[in-house]
Amino acid sequence: MKGPRPVNLPGIRAGLRLAALTLLPLLTLTACGSGGTSATTPAGAQASPVPTDDPVAAVRKVDSVAALLPADVRKAGTLRVGSSIGFPPGAYFPNGQDKPPAGQDIDIADAVAKVLGVKLERQDASFETILPALGSGKYDFGSGNFGVTTERLKTVDFVTYINDGQGFAVKTGNTALGKKVTDLTQLCGLTIGTGAGTTFEATLTEQKGVCAKAGEKPYDVKVYSENAATLTALQQGRIDVIMSTINGLRYQAAQPASQTTFLGEFHRLDVGFAFKKGSPLTKAFQAAVNELIKDGTYARILTKWGTSASAIDTSRINPPEHT
Fold first, then answer.
1. How far apart are the C-alpha atoms of 165 and 244, rounded to whole Å?
2. How far is CA 143 from CA 5, 107, 190, 223, 309, in A?
3. pLDDT greater than 80 at residue 268
4. Rounded to whole angstroms, how far apart are CA atoms 196 and 127?
């Protein structure tokens, strides 16, 4: 997200590709810095098992919804999706990049495709490249926990499927920030780690002046291209706190090997599939998400990934940004 942002304006997820792929279920420490590819697992650490239930398996095509697709798409029977594979529970590689990804975003996109009667051609792409590529036609839509913001709505259309937002986490045992971050002035004098190219980074960078206004020492922002590198920095004491997605940080804190504590929700934000402006696909996708909500598949997917608190009642096209 670019442009001036108010202090409480959320970003959405560090859409980061983890190099330590075998470590993804743990979201635990890597032995490398940003951009590295090697990884180590703490002795005795046990990876959290990938949920085995498959609520998407029973989903079938709904002709009345599929009819909302453009005729050429129905004839082709495929849609190209630029997919940012980052970390659980959204989208990750539990068994390495040569195996299929898993996660909440993957299941919802696959279920929508089945309702529409089309196949997805999933192309793994870095978070920051997907939205610009929509306008060029490289992808039919993008998936990557993209938050609906006022700036993005100027150039991108959204079909919402979940509600997520900003949160913070610290190394377990660190009580300097208390149990919850409710204002960025609480971060004054600290070092915050977050994802490169995300709205988290933009919010933190653009609002550094809040500390000076409060008569406090500024906070420092360090950005990383991989979530694993951010976590390593936290464990090694090079940063004091992580800013990322609510669901991602909550999931991470539930893994004992990560040794992190979630500091609560800072701000909520709608999340949606992203399309080029004026895309003829949005009404069909909205109807497909609402069909999944109605038949219970949506609730089962969120239960599978532990994200039921982020459920929406109905999908919307281009809702205004939360304030």
1. 8
2. 23, 11, 32, 22, 20
3. yes
4. 10
